Amino acid sequence: MNKSQNQISNDQATNSNTTNYLTITSPIGNLTLAEQNGFLTHIYLNMETPTESTTNKILLDTSAQLTEYFDGTRKEFTIPLNPKGGPFLQRVWKIMTSSQLPFGTTITYSALANLAGNPRASRAVGMANNRNPIPIIIPCHRVVGKNGTLTGFRGGLSMKEQLLSHEKKHSKT
Predict the structure, then answer these.
(1) What span, in angstroms and rounded, lies between the C-alpha atoms of 5 and 88?
(2) Which are the catalytic amino acids?
């Protein structure tokens, strides 16, 4: 993975139970960012905001990079990530943040299962998308059904369509 791409931590252990939150406004609604131990751990889409909001470098950097993304000037993120999940989920999420699934492109569940080393794991790839705690940065919205059909997305199909349209528009620049 080159240094311009996200680094997903393999360290599932945490040094602290303190989670910091920051809610930002975006073209697709409010996004609540969560950070723990120097890693982004969650992006909540249009969900209830935690009662305590704090800021730190990771949250401010994530906010700035998401603003650039929505402005169409950022196509890759450089935020340290630590999504929680087993080995297969981690493998799928790493592929989604790699150059194998760049900005403005899509991939089918079955093609992503092939890249993850298990051609019969289309449903497991769907579950990895469903359990993705860091949407947009781990771009599960780029995973589509057969023939490019839009299928499940935590934020709803309308939001998935907005994200794909946004990337299509800005991938030409």
Answers:
(1) 20
(2) 140
In the chain, DSSP finds a helix count (H) and a strand count (E) of 5, 7
Question: Of 148, 127, 149, nearest to 140 (Cα)?
Answer: 127
Find, among 127, 133, 104, 99, the residue nearest to 115 by Cα: 99
Task: Give the 3-state secondary structure of residue 30.
Answer: strand
Boundaries of every domain in the chain: 7-80, 85-170
Q: Regarding the domain delimited by 7-80, which CATH topology (the fold level of the hierarchy) does it fall under? A: Double Stranded RNA Binding Domain (3.30.160)
Contact between 29 and 135 (Cβ < 8 Å) = no
Q: Residue 135 carries which DSSP code?
A: T
- Rounded Cα gap, residues 108 and 5, in angstroms: 22
Per-residue pLDDT tens digits of the chain, which is 173 residues long: 333 345 554 444 445 678 888 988 899 988 999 999 999 999 998 765 555 667 789 999 999 999 999 999 999 999 999 999 999 999 999 999 988 889 999 999 999 999 998 999 889 998 898 899 999 999 999 999 888 888 877 777 888 899 999 999 998 75
CATH top class, domain 85-170: mainly alpha
The runs of H, that is alpha helices, within the chain are 57-71, 87-96, 109-115, 122-130, 157-170
Let me know: does 76 contact 139? Beta carbons within 8 Å: no
